[in-house]
């Protein structure tokens, strides 16, 4: 199927999906060629499936925003306060309304993926062809639909499953509907997860292993299952599928880890693959975070801030700004890493013109900034060549070890949890000899390791929500330039209380959806947005 990736539909579904329709769930999908082209052969079905992946990878949906927004809505990342192009600022400040385009797009593109998956699943069984091949295609469509619902229920579900599975979730549609409108109420969070688990269970039965990681194969199905079961607090299944997912994968070494998370390696279970005509350019992940490495400069104007006038043109730092370069991490987060942890090298340091590291003495700062005095640069993502090129991981084996560790700790299997956690800690820091923590201390260490290992990979906000934790930016308030007083949701301007208290960790159902869906009224809006 890889040879079809460059076919027209790869972009056709996405371009058409960007039209100004307000109908999310209702119709036979119009963003596609005619059915007699797509479903007269297995080869045509593959083209349709490629379109589903293109929708899934689209930067206004899960492709970029779905990965970066969970970081800026957390505590370890921020948007710079100036020259930020207004991108991700409202997400960072929790300034959502029912008219917010960012919430709309996450909702819209997930349901376009679901709508097209429904069409695919309604047709695939009737196509003549090899049954094993058809089953594998079906497994991928089921998995993409499940992943889209998983995204929707975590973003728009008013409660976390582990807090209240009877809380309000999102509408479920698994059929191809007519053009006459639709009437589909919100399901509960638990009902949405039942649909997700059902799709993934069938996908597990039908999927096949594959070397190409741009598509969902048997290992990727297991990885999605592990992530879903972790979010549900089903520890037995979370551990089971995490181990199934990472079987046969090996963790990458330091050199590969620090190369920029932009190409397939032995750790990648499922990734976003881009080809030349489907590159996200300025809206890509590395556009928002990219820098080339340590920066050599002389502080020409004495303000302690690296800017274009300060960079030494004779060093690689002269070309380190690439794309928007507007998302940063806090100094508090950087200092969570031990100096012996090679992952700390993902945060460039300032060097004097002789190449010596500048100490943390005011006004100079140890870690590199650029153009704004808030937050620090990271080299986690880099483009391969031109901006936006690269294959960016969606699920890595390291996440599976951390899922296993958390699940086993919650099951009371301390030794197994310690072993899985040690695998990740020791890979990053060869001075770590053992993990001896137990009980809540062990769980807290696992949560901390998730923050460090998986930052900017689409997890932090969702971890805060599922673990029912406060969002507390107090330790990093010297880096965070905006507090939450504008939302009048906390006595402490740096803290949003737990979701079970505030119900704040969800996005608003788009008003366009409420207007279009006959089953919904304004009373069906998430409580904090009424």
From TrEMBL:
- Source domain of life is Bacteria
**CDD domains noted in UniProt:** SusD (cd08977)
Signal peptide range in chain numbering: 1-17
By its UniProt entry, which Pfam families does this protein fall under? SusD-like_3, SusD_RagB
An example Gene Ontology CC term for this record: cell outer membrane
In terms of InterPro entries, this protein maps to:
SusD-like_N (IPR033985), SusD_RagB_dom (IPR012944), TPR-like_helical_dom_sf (IPR011990)
Q: Which UniProt keywords apply?
A: Cell outer membrane, Membrane, Signal
Principal subcellular localization: membrane
Q: Does the keyword Signal apply?
A: yes
- The residue ranges of the SusD-like N-terminal domain are 24-230
Q: Where is the RagB/SusD domain?
A: 377-529
- Report the locations given in the UniProt record: Cell outer membrane
- Which family would the database say this protein is a member of? Belongs to the SusD family.
Q: What is this protein called?
A: Starch-binding associating with outer membrane
**Taxonomic source organism:** Zhouia amylolytica
């Amino acid at each position: 199927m890889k040879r079809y990736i460059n076919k027209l539909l790869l972009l056709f579904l996405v371009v058409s999906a960007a039209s100004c329709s307000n109908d999310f769930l209702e119709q036979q999908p119009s963003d596609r060629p005619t059915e007699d082209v797509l479903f007269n052969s297995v080869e045509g079905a593959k083209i349709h499936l490629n379109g589903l992946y293109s929708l899934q990878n689209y930067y206004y949906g899960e492709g970029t925003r779905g990965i970066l927004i969970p970081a800026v809505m957390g505590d370890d990342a921020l948007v710079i306060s100036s020259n930020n192009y207004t991108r991700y600022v409202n997400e960072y400040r929790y300034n959502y309304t029912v008219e917010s385009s960012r919430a709309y797009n996450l909702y819209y593109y997930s349901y376009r993926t679901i709508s097209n998956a429904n069409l695919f699943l309604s047709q695939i069984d009737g196509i003549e062809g090899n049954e094993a091949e058809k089953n594998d295609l079906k497994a991928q469509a089921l998995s993409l639909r499940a992943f889209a619902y998983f995204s929707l229920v975590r973003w728009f579900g008013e409660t976390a499953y582990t807090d209240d599975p009877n809380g309000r979730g999102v509408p479920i549609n698994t059929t191809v509907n007519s053009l006459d409108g639709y009437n589909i109420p919100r399901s509960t969070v638990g009902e949405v997860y039942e649909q997700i688990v059902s799709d993934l269970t069938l996908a597990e039965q039908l999927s096949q292993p594959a070397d190409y990681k741009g598509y969902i194969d048997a290992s990727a199905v297991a990885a999605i299952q592990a992530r879903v079961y972790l979010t549900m607090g089903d520890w037995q299944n979370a551990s089971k599928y995490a181990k199934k997912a990472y079987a046969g994968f090996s963790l990458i070494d330091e050199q590969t880890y620090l190369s920029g998370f932009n190409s397939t390696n032995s750790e990648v279970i499922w990734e976003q693959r881009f080809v030349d005509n489907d590159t996200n350019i300025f809206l890509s992940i590395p556009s928002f975070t990219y820098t080339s490495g340590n920066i050599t400069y002389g502080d020409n104007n004495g303000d302690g801030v690296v800017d274009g006038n300060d960079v030494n043109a004779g060093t690689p730092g002269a070309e380190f700004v690439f794309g928007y370069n507007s998302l940063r991490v806090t100094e508090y987060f950087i200092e969570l890493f031990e100096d012996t942890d090679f992952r700390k090298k993902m945060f460039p340091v300032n060097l004097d013109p002789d190449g010596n590291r500048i100490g943390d003495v005011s006004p100079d700062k140890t870690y590199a900034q650029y153009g704004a005095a808030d937050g620090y640069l990271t080299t986690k993502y880099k483009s391969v060549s031109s901006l936006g090129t690269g294959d960016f991981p969606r699920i890595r084996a390291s996440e599976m070890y951390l899922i296993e560790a958390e699940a086993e700790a919650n099951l009371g299997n301390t030794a197994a949890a310690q072993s899985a956690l040690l695998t990740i800690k020791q890979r990053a820091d060869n001075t770590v000899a053992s993990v001896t923590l137990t009980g809540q201390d062990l769980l807290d260490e696992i949560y901390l390791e998730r923050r460090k290992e998986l930052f900017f990979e689409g997890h932090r906000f969702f971890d805060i929500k599922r673990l029912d934790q406060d969002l507390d930016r107090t330790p990093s308030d010297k880096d965070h330039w905006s507090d939450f007083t504008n939302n009048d949701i906390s006595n402490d301007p740096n803290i949003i209380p737990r979701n079970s208290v505030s119900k704040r960790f969800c996005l608003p159902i788009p008003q366009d959806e409420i207007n279009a869906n006959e089953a919904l009224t304004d009373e069906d809006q998430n409580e904090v947005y009424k």
